[in-house]
Design a protein that fits this description.
Blueprint lengths: L5 H12 L15 H29 L2 E7 L1 E6 L6 E9 L2 E4 L5 E6 L6 E2 L4 E5 L2 H26 L3 H33 L5 H30 L3 H26 L2 E3 L4 E6 L6 E2 L16 E4 L4 E8 L11 E6 L6 E14 L4 E8 L11 E6 L12 E8 L4 E3 L2 E8 L2 E6 L2 E5 L2 E4 L7 E5 L10 E3 L4
Helix pairs in contact: 3-6, 4-5
Length: 462
């Protein structure tokens, strides 16, 4: 019986066509040679790129990043007129913080910052009710002590002496009468008329009157002699003590009025009405007691405070003259001379403090202003030295010091180059040095261990 298998044979042929004929691969089943070379070349390329990246990173880590500034040339007079230029700050020769001698609350304050005041002028008043009451109490004690001393010194009054004499006369008369009564009692007792008791009463009364008379006689003598010297001395001591207490109370009361100790200008006002000021320990807490009320100084007595490097200190001497200029008013200059040279140096900063007195100050000067002093050579040192020498200004951060030698690092052709220099003067924000010509790029910031010849990269530049 015939069967129709057409569709099944067709599917079988399709499946056979999908089989892979492994006999068609070259080399008996191995991949072609060109593919192997391609794979090995790719691996080698990746390895080379990795090595290059590592090398780049290693080289980049040895290149230090730095910041630079331009050195600028300046003309500076040499010994003929200026031997050293230094920068510092204007300061008041004497700045006074006015404190209170007593603790109290501010009742009135009559000055503002910048006010000019005269010596003795009232600046602040404190509440004084308690101090006034203590003073009045002490004054009353003094008056009482004076009265006691006067009483002792004057002795007994005539009226008191007269009264004492009258009492003594009365006692004597009584004693005489009691003696008569005693004699009468003895006669009556001897006659057997009076009893023994009557005689004893008469004897006792007479003896009592005798004792009273003797006591009044001694009191009358003391009344006439007056008080003892010791009692007068004690009264004097009591008066001195009372007067001392009154003087102390008066000083406390007077201290509630705070006056200007000198003529000057108010620099600070540190207390306000209602705040507590103390003569003990001031508090830094909000609302705590204040230690002072105002600060003032005489602005006609002004100095410039300088820190001179020890290397330059030998160029200066007491009373040496200099010219003072201000950063705030560059068109003004003042004459000055060295008024004080510190007897000791600052070990940490390797400097010596010098103060220059401004001889003719004016209202333009303000404490804490930046100032520059150009010191002049002595007259016998400046003969035939009128030439000018060019120095170079560098920022403070550019100057380095190692083993006592000062130097700068220059940025040149991608490397750091060391250049030894000598400081010739100070300016605001830097120094004047030699051994440079100006225009160089001096390194102001970079690694602390940056070496001469080390490769560098300027920050912000590729």
């Amino acid at each position: 019986m015939p069967t129709d298998l057409g569709p099944l044979d067709t599917k079988h042929d399709d499946l056979r066509s999908l089989r892979i004929d492994r006999s068609l691969r070259d080399g008996g089943g191995e991949p072609p040679a060109w593919s192997r070379r391609f794979i090995l070349g790719g691996i080698a390329l990746v390895v080379l790129l990795g090595i290059a990246a590592l090398a780049y990173r290693a080289l980049a880590s040895q290149t230090a990043e730095v910041e630079v500034a331009h050195a600028t040339a300046e003309s500076s007079d040499v010994a003929g007129s200026t031997v050293l230029s230094a920068s510092g700050y204007v300061v008041a020769h004497h700045k006074i913080s006015v404190n209170s001698k007593v603790t109290g609350r501010v009742a009135w304050i009559g000055v503002e910052k910048g006010d000019k005041v005269n010596e003795g002028q009232v600046l602040v008043r404190l509440e004084d009710e308690e101090f006034r009451a203590q003073y009045e109490q002490a004054r009353g004690a003094v008056e009482s002590a004076k009265a006691r001393l006067l009483e002792q010194q004057n002795g007994s009054r005539p009226e008191e002496i007269e009264q004492s004499d009258h009492n003594l006369s009365e006692a004597r008369a009584t004693a005489v009468n009691d003696k008569l009564n005693l004699d009468r009692a003895r006669d009556l007792f001897a006659q057997g008329v009076a009893s023994r008791q009557s005689l004893d009463d008469a004897i006792a009364k007479y003896e009592a009157s005798q004792q009273r008379m003797n006591s009044l006689e001694r009191a009358s003598k003391l009344m006439q002699l007056g008080p003892r010297a010791e009692e007068i001395a004690r009264a004097k001591g009591d008066l001195l003590q009372a007067e001392g207490q009154m003087a102390y109370a008066k000083s406390q009361l007077d201290a509630t009025v705070i006056r200007a100790p000198v003529t000057g200008t108010i620099l600070e006002r540190t207390a306000e009405k209602g705040e507590l000021v103390t003569a003990q320990f001031a508090s830094g807490a909000e609302g705590g007691p204040r230690g002072s009320v105002v600060a003032l100084a005489d602005l006609n007595d002004i100095q410039v405070e300088l820190d001179i490097a020890q290397d330059d200190f030998a160029k200066l001497s007491p009373k040496q003259e200099g010219t003072v200029t201000l950063d705030a008013f560059k068109d003004r200059s003042y004459k000055g001379e060295i008024a004080e040279m510190s007897p000791e140096a600052n070990r940490q900063k390797a400097t010596v403090q010098v103060k220059v007195q401004i001889l003719q100050p004016d209202s333009y000067l303000r404490p804490e202003m930046n100032a520059t002093v150009q010191f002049k050579a002595k007259a016998n040192d400046d003969k035939n030295t009128t030439a000018k020498q060019a120095y170079v200004f560098i920022p403070t951060a550019a100057l380095r010091d190692k083993d006592g030698k000062k130097f700068v690092l220059l940025a040149f052709n991608g490397k750091a180059l060391r250049r030894n220099v000598r400081v010739q003067g100070q300016r605001s924000g830097g120094y004047l040095v030699d051994s440079l010509v100006g225009g160089e790029n001096v390194i102001t910031a970079g690694p602390a261990d940056l070496q001469d010849g080390q490769k560098i990269r300027i920050k912000g530049q590729s």
